[in-house]
Design a protein that fits this description.
Blueprint (H helix, E strand, L loop, with lengths): L2 H17 L7 E5 L4 H12 L3 E4 L6 H11 L3 E4 L13 E3 L23 E7 L7 E6 H8 L12 E4 L7 H10 L4 E4 L8 H10 L4 E5 H10 L9 E5 L5 H10 L4 E6 L9 E4 L14 E2 L3 E6 L12 E7 L5 E2 L3 H7 E3 L7 E11 L5 E6 L4 E3 L2 E3 L1 H9 L6 E8 L5 E8 L5 H11 L8 E5 L31 H15 L14
Parallel strand pairs: 1-2, 1-3, 3-4, 7-8, 9-10, 10-11, 23-24
Antiparallel strand pairs: 5-6, 6-16, 11-12, 12-13, 14-15, 15-18, 17-18, 18-19, 20-21, 22-23
Helix pairs in contact: 1-2, 7-8
Length: about 500
């Protein structure tokens, strides 16, 4: 689609939405499969002056129902036939894709969109079992994509849109190119792609700009580095970058600009960025750099005062990228979005991340101050998974722990206590209630949770996954099955896999 074709398309849809009552501050659920139509639907919501709330395909119905109610969505837009997959009673508009060359029949003036107007609400994991809706205004999106110094934007760039639209990386992937005249390529497979498929897509479509979560960056560097050679810039983040992988990327992508990007959803995708020109020294981490344009960064001690140079403190970010706060949660908003200690009338967002300033003026990331973790780039509160697991029938106690595998990637493992429980059955039930990134890799049934001397759960004493209950299965037959079984044993860390066992569950 050309820009003129996309303009006509989104105007037609925006008219339809406006006639249905969409206007300033009206939240609209967008439930589309990955496609150009998804992009057009998001734009149409904006042109009607509304705010979009992504409804990811495959989200459990209970989660969808809760999300739509919490966000206060008046209606949901979807593709023809998509209304069948939405909760009963939802107001739905099924949008038909116009034919190429379509033009509106009469002129239409869209409502004025103000910088402080609500652009979207994205949900992140919450420690109480209740996700947090982050309400982001248009000025925050404009700050990310206008006059960017951390990334090249413009007509010469082709950006691959890979992230789920409910993940804030999509804000840069979508609106970075479209706001600056670039070429936007919506990935055909998205996060379901294999590494080889992703590499082939990048090379085939001559992608110049790519954003990868840290975990996917590490995998692509290991398996598909040559396919990234045509990139002019590669941005990675969402978790700590591995120095050995950074060193390999620098060596194998000589003409590519490598950027380590850091930022919470509450400050619109990126707060700080660092162009990586050389691998860190042995034992050092990859810095997260300096604040991007129209942003500020403070390192605060426990008293809320500036921490001295080189001293570890909590990172607080400020500037035009800040979200309004959390949807329908004024108490939590007031707790995390606090008055700026040194600028009257401004706010800072307390990230909960531990950092320190290096002598060279770069920020060094040192981990979370709380239990929040990143799983494949998604922010996950183990407490949310614990809360849902504790609600399941027969579960008397629950705990969730993050384990780092040999390859360096992280996975959630849940532990449950109760009579007659099945780990696999509990995991299946969690998959029906939670989004995919929050579903534990396995559920281990214990007689009791280990406790510390003061009665708290001793997470350090929770057993390493691998010895969980597995249904009986007959042994492999013949040399080919035996060869596969040996490969599974080595690669998946399981003992004696049987013929009927699921590769994906293992």
């Amino acid at each position: 689609w050309s820009y003129s074709g996309l303009d006509a398309w989104t105007e037609a849809w925006a008219r339809e939405l406006a006639s249905a009552g969409v206007g300033p501050e009206v939240r609209v659920g967008v439930a589309f499969e990955r496609s150009v139509a998804m992009v057009a639907a998001l734009l149409a919501v904006w042109r009607a002056c509304g705010a979009y709330v992504p409804i990811e395909p495959g989200l459990p119905e209970e989660r969808r129902r809760w999300l739509l109610a919490d966000a206060g969505c008046r209606l949901v837009v979807t593709a023809p036939g998509g209304g069948r997959d939405l909760p009963e009673g939802t107001a739905v508009i099924e949008l038909e894709v116009p034919a190429a060359g379509f033009a509106p029949s009469a002129a239409w003036s869209s409502p004025e969109i103000l910088p402080e107007g609500l652009a979207y609400v994205l949900y992140t994991s919450g420690s109480t079992g209740r996700p947090k809706g982050v309400a982001v205004p248009h000025r925050a999106v404009a700050r990310l994509v206008a006059g960017s110094s951390f990334a090249r934007l413009g007509p010469a760039e082709t950006w691959l849109q890979l992230a789920p639209v409910a993940f804030d990386a999509s804000t840069l992937e979508l609106w970075g190119p479209l706001a600056t005249g670039g070429r936007l390529l919506v990935s055909a497979t998205g996060r379901r792609a294999s590494l080889a498929e992703l590499g082939a897509e990048v090379a085939r479509e001559r992608v110049t700009s790519l954003w990868l979560t840290a975990g996917l960056f590490h995998q692509m560097v290991e398996e598909e580095l040559p396919s990234l050679a045509g990139l002019s810039q590669l941005l990675a983040g969402g978790d700590v970058l591995s120095p050995p992988h950074v060193e390999r990327a620098l060596g194998g992508l000589a003409g590519t600009r490598l950027v380590n990007g850091y930022g919470p959803t509450e400050n619109t995708t990126f707060s700080c960025c660092h162009r990586v020109r050389e691998a860190p020294e042995r034992g050092a981490s990859v810095p997260i750099g300096r604040p991007i344009g129209d942003s500020g960064a403070l390192v605060l001690d426990r008293q809320g005062q500036l921490a001295p140079l080189g001293t570890v403190g909590e990172l607080a970010v400020s500037g035009r990228g800040l979200a309004r706060g959390y949807q329908g949660r004024p108490g939590l908003t007031a707790e995390r979005f606090v008055p700026h200690p040194f600028a009257c009338g401004e706010r800072v967002y307390r990230t909960g991340d531990r950092v320190r300033w290096r002598a060279n003026g770069l920020l060094e990331f040192l981990g979370r101050a709380d239990a929040q973790v990143k799983i494949r780039g998604f922010r996950v509160e183990p407490g949310e998974v614990e809360a849902v697991l504790g609600e399941l029938a027969g579960v008397r106690a629950a705990a969730v722990k993050v384990w780092t595998r040999a390859a360096g990637d992280k996975q959630l493992v849940a532990y449950a206590v109760g009579e007659g429980l099945s780990g696999s059955a509990l995991r299946e039930e969690l998959a029906r209630r939670l989004p995919e990134p929050l579903v534990p890799a396995s559920v281990v049934v214990l007689e009791a949770l280990p406790l510390t001397a003061n009665g708290k759960v001793d997470r350090a004493a929770l057993p390493e996954p691998g010895g969980e209950e597995r249904a009986p299965s007959e042994p492999p037959r013949g040399p080919l099955e035996q060869l596969l079984a040996r490969m599974w044993e080595e690669l998946l860390g399981v003992e004696s896999p049987g013929r009927e066992e699921s590769f994906f569950e293992l």
